[in-house]
Structures are given as structure tokens and as C-alpha cells.
Write a structure and sequence with these properties.
It contains twelve helices and ten strands. The protein is an alpha+beta fold. The protein has a five-stranded mixed beta sheet with strand order 1-5-2-4-3, sandwiched between helices. This is Peptidase M16 N-terminal domain-containing protein. GO terms for molecular function: metal ion binding.
Length: about 375
């Protein structure tokens, strides 16, 4: 079992993560959401259920997440609980449990369908629509939870099938915290040997368009997105904050509009997808479109980019100053971001890259129906 360990962090707690290199990009057509479904079912395995309850009663934190390319189960503990928490994560990755027994499959399916209905919101919907514009229907599944119809199509045998595939793929453990005086098994070693060839390569194929709902509404959500290949990931992250700042200031200073601009970034092995989303009144749509066109066509201010790089670096240092964040970051750095130096930015090359691109940002506007 590959172990990736950072015991230099002077943090009282210890975070232990168990990773599978599978996510929604591996969902089968018509069964979107099956890896997320499997995450739920694993928590219903009797051994996992029993340990989860025991950990929670002891004050430990146990959780999991599924992304497009990874699945992670993790425990946040202190030294006194380390051995038990570590053994749990190790067993979860190393032992194949029987999913054909009672794992509350039908009840969990109902829970997931209710989650999908409950978690619907306009921000997620506009991101979904932008992704369809960018990648059309030929891309892997970005929709981690799936939809009501696809979840209904998933059977218990489907989950057993993809669960079995986990044990022929890469698995690894990340540990962050003060474990200098804690011994691990002989199977633990500090070198990552994760096969990054398992990840799917994606690229933008859709035509950039400005699309808007036909519904006549008082308020709309305005969304923009761009894709940057992994060689421009770092600059793209900075650029995301730069555009957000430019857009907010232009709207405020030139038109007295104080719309809150939300950004979201999706880190994939192939690169970075960044989103800018804000809620807007109908009468301001034309103004916003003109400003967006102007911002994306004007020359980039290198001093402003450098300022945002420093701000982003500080934010990342603050966020990584706890065991859980650093443990998750460690997992991504050794899979999705492997071989990339987060401190390297070449803005001159990035500007040339932007100037050579033919596409403007993808734009989608959806009405808020009441």
C-alpha cells in the first residue's frame, strides 16, 4: 500500500486519508452517479458502520468525498486514537468487503435521489450548462451525484462491479500530523508510485457561445467559464481571481453596480476549469455583456496579476494550516497535480497563450423562475 506522509506539520491532530483513483469520470453512460452511490454504500458495510459510530462517539471526525477522478475516505483524530483510525483506513483499502449482503441499497438510493432534489441550485445548474457548452456530450461525467433517472438505473450488481474494479487500480494513504513517535507497518513507505495514466484526458470541443434562457425573469444568473491546460494551471488560478476583481470593479466604478462575483475552480488531471458566476437584474444584462467583452479583450496588467498571485499564495497557506486540508492537498499533489510546482508562474508565456486562443469565455445566462 502506497503511503504519502507529511509529519513535519506541527499540528496537534492527525488526518488519515484512504484514496481510490476512481470518480465520476468512470461512471457508465446511463448510470451517472454510480461512484458517488458506491461511496454511500461503503458506509453501510457493517464493519464500516460500526467503526464510524465508534469514532463519532469518541469525538473523531470521519467523512468521505467523490470527485471526478478520485474518491477519499478520511478520519481526523489525535495521537491516542491514531492506531485504531489508521487500521480502519488501511482495512478499508486493503480488504474487499461483501456488498451483496444487506447494505440498505434501496434506502440509500432513495436518500441520494432526495439529495439530488434538495441540492438543486442555480449556481450548480449554470456550471452544468457551461460544461455542456464546453465539452458537449462526448466528455466524461462531470455530474458527480448523477440525476434522478440515472440513479434509478443503478443496481446493486453495478456497484459490486465497480467496487471490484477498485482492487485492480491504484490505492494509497495520505497522513498529515505529528506521527514521529508512531510506528507504521512494514508496508508503509514514503514514496508515491501512483500511476497517473489512469486519468482521462479531456479538452474543450464545444463552440463558445453566449446562451440565454427564453424565460422572461426579473433576475438571472450570469455564468462564464474557461479551460486551461495543466501547463497553465497556476496562471489560470491567478487569472480567475484577476478577472473576478476586474469585473467587480468595472461594474461598481462605471455603473454603480455592486454584484457579488463568485468564482469556482475544478482541478482535473488534464487542467483547470474556472467559473465566474453572479446574480444580475434583467436590465443590467447588456451592460454586463459589454463589460465582459471589454475585460477579456484588454491587455492584462502584470502588476495586478502578481498581486493576486501573492494573495492566493497567502490564502493557500492559511487554508493548509490544518491537518485535514493538508492531507487532502497531499493526495491531489500526488495524483491530479503530480509533477507540478504550485509556486511557478510564467505570466509572459501565459499572456501569449491567451492571445493565441480563439475562444472567448463561454457564457450562459439562466432565469430565476419564481
Amino acid at each position: 500500500m502506497h503511503h504519502i506522509i507529511n509529519n513535519e506539520k506541527k499540528i496537534n491532530s492527525i488526518a488519515i486519508g484512504g484514496w481510490f483513483t476512481k470518480g465520476s469520470f468512470f461512471d457508465r453512460v446511463g448510470k451517472e452517479g454510480e461512484h458517488h452511490f458506491l461511496e454511500h454504500i461503503i458506509f453501510n458495510i457493517p464493519y464500516v458502520k460500526e467503526q464510524t459510530l465508534k469514532f463519532k462517539e469518541s469525538g473523531l471526525v470521519i467523512n468521505a468525498f467523490t470527485s471526478q477522478e478520485l474518491m477519499c475516505f478520511y478520519v481526523l483524530c489525535i495521537k491516542d486514537n491514531f492506531s485504531e483510525a489508521y487500521n480502519f483506513i488501511y482495512n478499508l483499502l486493503n480488504e474487499k468487503f461483501d456488498l451483496s449482503k444487506d447494505v440498505s441499497f434501496e434506502n440509500e438510493k432513495l436518500i441520494i435521489k432526495r439529495e439530488i432534489e434538495y441540492h438543486y441550485n442555480y449556481v450548480e445548474e449554470i456550471k452544468k450548462q457551461l460544461l455542456l457548452q464546453m465539452f458537449e456530450n462526448s466528455c466524461p461525467n462531470f455530474n458527480i451525484m448523477g440525476n434522478i433517472e440515472s440513479v434509478e438505473n443503478i443496481t446493486q450488481y453495478d456497484l459490486i462491479d465497480i467496487y471490484d474494479s477498485f482492487f485492480t487500480g491504484d490505492k494509497f494513504i495520505t497522513i498529515v500530523g505529528d506521527i514521529n513517535k508512531i510506528s507504521l507497518s512494514n508496508n508503509a513507505y514514503y514514496k508515491s508510485e501512483i500511476n497517473t495514466n489512469v486519468f482521462k484526458d479531456i479538452d474543450v470541443i464545444g463552440k463558445n457561445k453566449y446562451l440565454i434562457d427564453n424565460y422572461d425573469c426579473e433576475y438571472y444568473y450570469y455564468g462564464l467559464s474557461q479551460f486551461f491546460h495543466k501547463v497553465h494551471r497556476n496562471e489560470g488560478l491567478v487569472y480567475s481571481e484577476y478577472i473576478k476583481d476586474q469585473l467587480f470593479n468595472k461594474l461598481r466604478e462605471e455603473y454603480g453596480l455592486t454584484y457579488r462575483i463568485n468564482t469556482a475552480n475544478m482541478n482535473l488531471h488534464s487542467g483547470l476549469i474556472t467559473f465566474w458566476i453572479f446574480k444580475i437584474r434583467k436590465q443590467d444584462l447588456g451592460i454586463s455583456q459589454d463589460i465582459i467583452k471589454k475585460i477579456f479583450s484588454q491587455k492584462i496588467n502584470l502588476q495586478e496579476m502578481e498581486k493576486h498571485r501573492q494573495q492566493l499564495r497567502t490564502k493557500n497557506m492559511i487554508q493548509s494550516d490544518n491537518a485535514t486540508s493538508e492531507m487532502l492537498s497531499l493526495g491531489y499533489r500526488n495524483t491530479i497535480l503530480t509533477g507540478e510546482d504550485p509556486d511557478v508562474c510564467n505570466f509572459e508565456e501565459f499572456i501569449k497563450y491567451l492571445e493565441s486562443r480563439e475562444e472567448d469565455p463561454y457564457q450562459r445566462v439562466i432565469g430565476i423562475r419564481t
